[in-house]
Every structure is written in C-alpha cells, then in structure tokens.
Amino acid sequence: MNDQNVTRQTFDEVMVPVFAPASFVPDRGVGSRVWDTQGKDYIDFAGGIAVTALGHAHPELLKVLHDQGAKLWHIGNGYTNEPVLRLAKRLEELTFADRAFFANSGAEANEAALKLARRVAFERFGAEKDEIISFTQSFHGRTFFTVSVGGQPKYSEGFGPVPAGIRHLPYNDIDAARAAIGPKTCAVIVEPVQGEGGVIPADPAFLKALREACDQHNALLIFDEVQTGVGRTGFFYAYEDTGVTPDVLTTAKALGNGFPIGAMLTTKELAAHFKVGVHGTTYGGNPLATAIALKVVELVSDPKLLEGVRARSEALKATLAKINERFGIFSDVRGKGLLIGVELTDAYKGRAKDFVTAAGKHGVIMLMAGPDVLRFAPSLIIPLDDMNEGLARFEKAIEEVVGVTALAK
C-alpha cells in the first residue's frame, strides 16, 4: 500500500474504537517538546502516561537502541542473554529483591505477581488460601485477571464471570484492612500512590498496617509500582519512602522510557515457587528491551536526578497553587514527586476532559485521572523553562474553559 496519507480521521476508519485520541497527531519529540504532523509544538506534561521519564529522543538511549539493535533483538527464553542478566542484577542491587521476571507491560508484571501469590499459597498452605485483596479505584492492568483485581468495575463488566476470590476494600482504611485480611488471604496488592484512581498517596500508617496484617496471616504484600516506580515519586521506587518493604514489586512504564518492558521483582524464597514451565513469556526479557532499560535505570537511579525530581515537584506544586489563587478551580493539589493530581472543585466536577482538550489547543499535552482530576506526569528531567512555558499555556487553557479573559498579573 503506497498511500501514506493518514490523518486523525484515519483512526476512525481503521482502528478498533477502544481509544478516543486527541485531534492532533504527534509526529516527533525532543526532550519535553513534541511536534505534531502540522508542525505545531507542545509541552509534554503527560510523558506517555508516566512513561517517557527521560523525555523524547534521549541521546544515550538512542545510542543503546542502535548498538543493541545491530547485535541481537530477540532470542527467546530457551536461551538467556547478557542485557537481561545485567538488568536483573542492577534492579536487585537497588531494591529488596533478589530475583526478577521480565515481561512486556505493567499488566503482565501484575499478572505474574498475582499468579505467583496464588502459587505460593497453594504450595505452602493448600487450595483454600486463595483470596486476593485489592482496593477500590485501584488499577492494575487490562488483562482479565488484573482488571478484575483492579477496583474499577467499569473495566471488568460485560466480559462474563470474573475470577473468584477477589475482594475490594476502601483505600487508606486501616480498620477495614485489618478486619478483612485473614487466613484465606494469599495476597494484598496496593499502589503506593493510586494513579488512575485520582493520584491519591497511601498513608504510610495504612501501608504499615497492611504489612503487619500480611505477616500475621502469611499473605504476600504486592506493591504495584508500575506508575510510581523508576524515579517518578523522587525515589527510585516509592516503597523506599514508606518504611514498608513489599514481598513482590511490579514495575513497567518508565522502565523502558517508552520501549515496552515490565518486571516482577521478588525474593529468592518466593521465586522458587515459579519452577520451569509454571509461567512464561515469548518477548519478555528480550535483549533489546533490557539493554534500553538498563541504561534508563543507570540514569534515573542517580541521586542527583532523583533530587531534581523532588525540586521540580515543589516548583510545579507552587505554580499550580499560584494559578489556583487566580481561578479557584482546584480543591486539592496532591501526589508525590512528578506524579501530581489536581482535583477540580464541585463547579467543574466531571470536566477534566474539557481542560485536557483545551490544553491541547494551547500547546500542552495533558492527562486525566478520572473525570474530576487533572494529572501531571512530565519527564523527570524536564527543563524548568519548558515546565514554566507549559504552565503558562495551561493557564491560557483554563481561561478558555472557565470563560475569562486574561487578567492583569
């Protein structure tokens, strides 16, 4: 097919309609700026949903992509490869873990974690210990198992009977967690900051209570760090700042800076329950993805970079507070590091999409976290000039939505 003339309308003609993409079509990006097919430039505050943590076209990642791409892309898991072993070693040096399993996405990493938890309980305690506890408004992926474990029923309804043995509790409710976690519980899965559920940080006391209850009842504590991991909260993994260490950690999104990769990290003792043939993947842990991820890990784990995330976080929150002094449309600005959620006041409830659309018109790529929350997940190394330019454009978008003309500053 030689006809390469494609537009946003082409999407509606050729794609399954599970997405409703913006009216513009991004074409290329450098750092925190993106240009569409018409040449218009945007400041990227979305990062591909907290993925491009080092921005677009990072020169060191491009070099790894080229060098490894010229050597070996894929070999399959009947063999191992040097990049995957180096990445596993590095992630284990940086965390509590001493075993890694690599997949292609956060959903697959969570699928592996949940299967491991069920397997551990089955082999250690028998078939009765199978209950998985999750939290309302949580999000753990789109496979049928992970979407059933996730606490947003709209994503699992209409696909037939959901897997049994899954229970949802209110997030940050210590009493409810203590009452529910018991002898039948095999795992508790929790996000240190609920991302899709509205950018809601976990109370450290809540995570501590989960850890204690899991220990008491021989259940595994799984931290879903798909969105919070790899520097996003100002720590390499968010658990480091909670005083709580999980038994299993899942990671993806920023791990490959846009190249698809996910991982499940755990201990040697728990990993032993995944014997040869019990779980698997075709692409997971391929040399191209893991070589890129290793460079991402090297760059993001630098203490100076993580310090920069925390500094940018304060600057971003301060400017958002200033914007709110003018408009009074945010009821809350919350989150950690460069995962920030801005909740809209009652007058603008349900209108997050309107702000995202207006932002696009004014040259800002934005995210939502539900209909009432705007989400900021920019590059961890976004230049302050770009951040300020993006926030100025965002302010123009707000003016458009709320119907005010620019006021004298």
From TrEMBL:
May also have succinyldiaminopimelate aminotransferase activity, thus carrying out the corresponding step in lysine biosynthesis. Its EC number is 2.6.1.11. Its cofactor is pyridoxal 5'-phosphate. GO terms for cellular component: cytoplasm. It comes from the Bacteria. The modification N6-(pyridoxal phosphate)lysine is found at K253. This is Acetylornithine aminotransferase. It comes from Paraburkholderia piptadeniae. HAMAP family: ArgD_aminotrans_3. It is found in: Cytoplasm. Belongs to the class-III pyridoxal-phosphate-dependent aminotransferase family. ArgD subfamily. The gene is astC.
